[in-house]
Amino acid sequence: MDIMLFMARLSRQLLVAAALLSALPSHAELTIKVTRGSDQPTVIAVVPFVGRGVQVDTDVAAIVQADLQRSGLFNPIERAQMLSMPAAKADVYYRDWRLLGADYLVIGEFNETASGKLQLTFSLFSVLGQREMWSHQVTGSRTQLRDMAHLASDKIYQQITGLRGIFSTRVAYVNAYMEGGQMLYRLLVADVDGARERLLLESRQPIMSPAWSSDGKEIAYVSFETGRPAIFRQNLATAARQQLTDFAGLNSAPAWSPDGTKMALALSKDGNPELYLLDLDSGQLDRLTRHFAIDTEPTWTPDGRQLLFTSDRGGTPQIYRLELASKKVQRITWQGTYNARPSLAPDGRTLALIHRRDSHYRIAALDLVTERIIELTDTALDESPTVAPNGAMLMYATKQDDSGVLAAVSLDAGVKYLLPAQRGDVREPAWSPFPR
Amino acid sequence: MAQPLATAIKLRRQIARFGDSLAVAVLLSLALHAGVVALFFIHSQRPPERTVVTPPSIRASLVELSPKAAPAAPEVKTQRRTPPPAVRPAVSAQVVPATVKAAPQRDDDRSAERRQLLAAAAANGAATPLQAVEGGDEQAASYIAAIAALLAEQWSRPPSARLGMSAKVRIITVPTGRVVGISVIDSSGSEPFDRSVQLAIERVGQFDIIAELYRRDPALYERQFRQLEILFTPEDLRL
Q1: CATH number of B140-232: 3.40.50.450, 3.40.50.1450, 3.30.1150.10, 3.40.50.150?
Q2: pLDDT single digits (tens) B21-78
Q3: How far is the C-alpha of A397 from the C-alpha of A429, rounded, in Å?
Q4: How far is A51 from chain B (nearest CA, A)?
Q5: Does A3 contact B at CB distance below 8 Å?
Q6: What is the CATH topology of the domain spanning A170-431?
Q7: Tens of pLDDT along A235-268?
Q8: Strands annotated E in A207-261
Q9: ipTM of predicted assembly, 2 dp
Q10: How close A357 gets to chain B, by Cα (Å)?
Q11: Is B209 helix (H, G, I), strand (E, B) or coil?
Q12: Record's superkingdom (chain B) (predicted)?
């Protein structure tokens, strides 16, 4: 019993000693703080997808690669540089990709489902972590390969960046050119990479200010087809259209409310351009501003409670905020002699606008909280900014070789790309909401 | 005869009385010694890890490191690239004394190769621009700044990163500066953010600056740099 006691005491003592010993190295651990980053594009390799028992003619991996590159956040590895092109996880040699400096690797394969559809299974690998991170499947018919590619890009983008991808979204714009000695105006919708353009409306009279409904199913626009400006709404799937306004004077700048029930507009029926709110169900019109200056270009805050708009009531065009409940107006831009054409990012905080400083017009992003302005473009020819639904990019109209083209710029990554040029001018882009 | 016997009995009784506490003391001291020896043992187990670094992965990290303007990087890079046989005669002849001075106790290893490595590394260390101040804390501070700069250079924040977000990770290094363990001890709550942090460390992969620190002050390395806590919190973002 003495011995038992002795052993018990001994083991207790040993435990204390062990605890003391193990505590020794940890006391001096120090913390290093990293507060900056370089934000280099992520290097990603998208290996050509293979067909397992199916022939797929579209190079889907190439579309994914181009999508990711256009976002500005990725720097894809050229196919010619790839040391191997694995089609399955077992064929992935991380060393090959480390040598190329890749951070991530994407592989994928097509299979045919029982119902005859194509199924793309793709996987994302961490090269440095040497592991498969994630795998996903998209299914579609042979005519939907481009949709499948954009969907895959969306998913990969979201996995890595934490933001929803915008590759499946679309853009509406106006194209105008001379034909037979007369101007021809066309309202078009295309993928954000410019592919698969679709005609919505063609007119010998001007078409302006396309605006998406919040569900992405309709577009409102101004058309002069009746001889004077009028606002129409048009369903994309059915092409059914409805004329919403036919007032004397200016009918312009439609902006759909986030809940889709109302539309903010600028009308000059009472003298000079003022903001109005149109209830789309009842047709009831509510006047919002009352000022001898011009009030126009309304845009909604995501909560649907406020409008941001352009007004020259202060002497120069500036952006103002209107609270719908109280109709109280407050000026929000104070830098520069010209700020107009507001387009608010979905975070409700980043405001894209046309900004003039030192007699140069630029597209800029204003942080509504810090009031800091970042200039995103540097030519005087840029107009009509429209922010992507994930807030990471914006599109605008610019000039190239004397004709209007569309360009996109990332808000943070400092990357620009031009959409394919068209005959004549392309102007007034409107970025669609996320597809539902 | 009775006298010595009585003494012996008394002694035995005393031993019996104090027996257990004495045994405790002896055992405790034994345990402590064993612990210290174990520390040495643990330490001397590390060198193989150091030398085991396979050529392919070294080359891979070089590709990533090449655009850097990191202090000490270029020299060490070329050295690591050079096959050991070529380096061995020249460098060991010149710099072995310096190595012995820098790490007299740790160099108990019979591995000649390790000695060569250290010698080669010390030769490079001498040429680095980093001016470490004498005295522990200031010296540590300069290394900390250099490590933070290396990480900042490799850190690409996802566009979902915002001011005020932070993630804390613990990394474990070996004396070559190689990172052998990364664990997130305080998540930002955003998986892409945490992953970007991990990727930044993986992109660095090998902190030559830590290897240099080890050569100059192994004790400081053991005390503060074998395990490091790193807090990533962006302060230069737009939002």
Answers
A1: 3.30.1150.10
A2: 667 777 888 888 887 777 666 555 544 444 433 333 332 322 232 333 333 333 333 3
A3: 7
A4: 31
A5: no
A6: Neuraminidase (2.120.10)
A7: 999 999 999 999 999 999 999 999 999 999 999 9
A8: 207-212, 218-223, 230-235, 241-243, 251-256
A9: 0.75
A10: 20
A11: helix
A12: Bacteria
